[in-house]
Design a protein that fits this description.
The radius of gyration is 17 Å and the shape is globular. With about 210 residues, it is α+β, with helices and mostly antiparallel strands. Helices cover about 55% and strands about 10% of the residues. A four-stranded mixed beta sheet has the order 2-1-3-4. The protein has two domains: about 90 residues, 3-Layer(aba) Sandwich (Glutaredoxin), CATH 3.40.30; about 110 residues, Up-down Bundle (Glutathione S-transferase Yfyf (Class Pi), Chain A, domain 2), CATH 1.20.1050.
């Protein structure tokens, strides 16, 4: 059985949501981020499967994955009937991949930078001036997102995919971090979060 290690509304929530959408059997193990205790991310037993001591980690037999997008795409591949990622053409898959990479390398980076320079990094390594820079970066990324999402109901194609999980969770992350978010994206987030699988994932991921 698949085992997923995660913590609340971190990036690991994407994986829980994907598993619920896929309808796969799995075991969820809550991890205390930053804790050296037995159920913590700094404990040697956890770092043996995730050297960075981060979440999520997915273990499926001999396979261990520690990057959230790779995990959700692996889950999508295990449930082809759910159409959680395109499989009908190379072009459709490439468009899907491009959107996922945009989320990871562009849209979410300002959010992670704010988190690192607000509370994650040791105080001596935080740069307060970064906090104004990340607002500018966020707005620039939103401008790109506007062009991509124009006229679309879903992130890619005509149906829900794991790209929607990545986008909706990133927008929710931005909302939690008090970034300025256009109403259209808050409405989109709310529509995606009303999905039954997402509601189940929220219950599952709660500590």
């Amino acid at each position: 059985m698949i085992k997923l290690y995660g913590s609340g509304q971190s990036r690991s929530f994407r994986a829980v949501w994907a598993l619920e959408e896929a309808g796969l059997d799995y075991e969820y193990q809550h991890v205390k981020i930053g804790s050296p205790e037995e159920d913590g991310s700094r404990h040697p037993s956890y770092q043996a499967i995730n050297r960075q001591g981060k979440v999520p980690t997915l273990v499926d037999g001999n396979l261990t994955l520690t990057e959230s997008a790779a995990i959700v795409n692996y889950i999508a591949a295990l449930a082809p009937g759910k159409q959680l990622m395109p499989a009908d053409s190379a072009a459709a898959k490439a468009e899907y991949d491009e959107f996922c990479y945009f989320i990871l390398t562009d849209l979410e980076q300002s959010l992670w930078s704010k988190g690192k320079h607000s509370f994650v990094l040791p105080e001596e390594h935080r740069i307060e001036q970064m906090l104004s820079t990340v607002k500018w970066e966020w707005q620039r990324s939103l401008s790109a997102l506007d062009k991509i999402m124009e006229g679309r109901e879903f992130a890619v194609g005509d149906n829900f995919t794991c790209a929607d999980i990545l986008l909706a969770q990133t927008i929710n992350w931005a909302d939690r971090f008090q970034f300025d978010i256009p109403q259209q994206y808050l409405d989109y987030r709310d529509r995606m979060y009303l999905r039954p699988a997402c509601q189940r994932a929220k219950t599952k991921a709660s500590p």
